[in-house]
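Appendix B, Record 12. Input sequence as logged:
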Amino acid sequence: MQNNLISEVKNIRQTLHEIPETGFEEIKTSKYVKMKLTEYGFSFESCANTGVIAYLNFQPNLESIAFRADMDGLNVKEKTKVDYSSKHEGKMHACGHDGHMSILLGFAKYISTIKSFTKNIILIFQPAEEGPGGAKDIVEAGILEKYNVSAIFGLHLLPTIDEGKIGINYGPIMAKTGEFDITIRAKSGHGAMPHTAIDGIYIASQLISIYQSIVSRNVNPNQGSVITIGKIYGGEARNIIANTVKMEGTIRAFDNKVYDLIKQRMSTINDGLEKMYNINIDIEYRDMYPPVVNDKTLYDILDKCLTNNEKHLLEPIMIAEDFSYYQERVPGFFFMLGSKNEELGYTYPLHSCYFNFNEEILIKGIEVYIKICKELNAFD
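Logged structural output:
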């Protein structure tokens, strides 16, 4: 890899790191991406408000390979103290999306030097991965069909994998996710006379306990799934039986059928408790990203591209990714680029205000994209 490309990618990353913007608000980010693409001779169109679809001399008669990078930052106050820290107060690229964009722009610069292509290469700079899911907007805009995309690839930095290792696997690797809000409406009363009231907090405790039996007693042990209630609040005072209790939680599963089963069992349990205690339990579900399911054929391509020393067998993880929307339309493969470096202190988790990584690994991401293209005979 040329030294000038390495320097270019580092500069890109640091510039992007200074201007984090949240979902569908990536105005400065989009402008910068377009500026670099123009410099490299690319054509592009805007999509999903701030998203950018880029290509070189698109040939309608050829199939296309797409590569995606997410663009958005997070509402996190940065505490890394690096020279290129965020200039946007209260916002930070704490999930490595600045690195993902830098890899894709570095890849763009590399392929701008290629003279002949047998496949189109489409670069997707996508907004709002952290929410509400810019991938869905791009898919629904018909971008994959418009550009004849037959396969799509994406990556994510991951600080639990050693620096420079490539985490790969096929099948479900990330979970389908959803949120739920519950409101229990019971009957208030004096704390000294509980027999005259219906205790919403007691019912909430039963609901939480019974929900935990769904995964342990209704779901096949070989099928990964999670129900988490992360927030609960209710009641008025220490000596008053709670009239209303609210809870907020999340559901995760690697299989759509398991996810639907969990929702069905939760609703059935709610109905039963309503009848038992003569109260009302309202639940609102918000289905979010589908599971990320890696195509086996594309896995074989990645497996062939990499040496044994480069590979890391990726265990499925319960976090979610809207890359899954692309995979519902075309074969897709999502892999992890390890960023863990204990010597340099790059061990903080994603979304941490201290998250950072060694920029040398960005070149590794570019190299993997180049290997994929060569293995697919997109260019020599």
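The chain is about 35% helix and 25% strand.
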